[in-house]
Amino acid sequence: MRPSFFHHLHPPTIPAQQSRWRYTLGAGGTAVFLLLVVGVTGILEMFYVPTPEQAAQSIQTISYLVPLGGLIRNLHFWSAQFLLIVSAVHLIRIIFTGAYAPPRRFNYLLGLALFVFAILLDFTGYILRWDQGIQWALIVGTNLIKTIPLIGNALYVLLVGGTQPGLPTLIRFYAWHIFGLTLGVVILAVWHAFRVRRDGGIAVPPAPLRTDKARITRNELVRREVLAMLFTGAALIVLSTIQPAPIAAPITDVNALSSDAHAPWFFLWVQQMLKWGDPFFWGVLIPLIILAVLALIPYIFPNAAERELGRWFPRSNRVAQIILAVIAFAIIILTILGSLPIS
Residues 192-218: what's their mean pLDDT? Predict the structure, then answer.
């Protein structure tokens, strides 16, 4: 059978041992699929009206009055949430298998940047609801910018469009969500995928060091990807049918922060740290330090030896594994604590 364009996006063959789900977890391909779902459903939600008076109401209109609008919005919401989870799993897999070693260091940075852009895309989309459920992110989240020494106030005005959140804020977040961040995600995703091929595909030992030389064809790889997409799509549809995306009453007073206001789930760990003291240190500096440590892993810590590539937990990059495990464990615990009801 003559290969199609979709088949040509894949290498002719890849190592069979490293193509197994228990090695890749299917995270990279699943993230691409979820990104496509987010994009398509986002386009279908363009009935949204980005004004403080009509934003929450237009979302309710989409959810309850537009035919299949509720399903589309739920698919958009849940695929965006799972995109962050799957991207985090992909990052963990890359570090725990040492797959960031040269020549893949730059592509590791591209993937990390793509992960950050996905978080920002989710955060801006969260703000666009403009209901009472997003007030922590709108007030506390943006006020963290003010705590940055010297340039904080100027950055806040640039982000919010004034001295407090309002119509300019919503318009700017809408523009970043629809154009700026989306364009960045598309560019980084295409570049990241290109570099995967450019850097030799899946990280494996050099041919003389491989114990298993079996390979699978691109047709088999595409078949597995299609099955994974069908399974993921079916799961998303079921979840979107039984669990609606959150929506609350419209914001009446943008500056009124209720006692039970909370951050979006992916920033609950930051909210928890803010209870410990200085907002700049815990809310800005610590997250930036964590991001910097993750970015420097391929450059300052020992890389996995060539003979140990293509399997989990190589001994030669144990330091990076421990660092990531500590960071991931701390974020998970803080997220759980942040999700507990406020007493």
Answer: 83
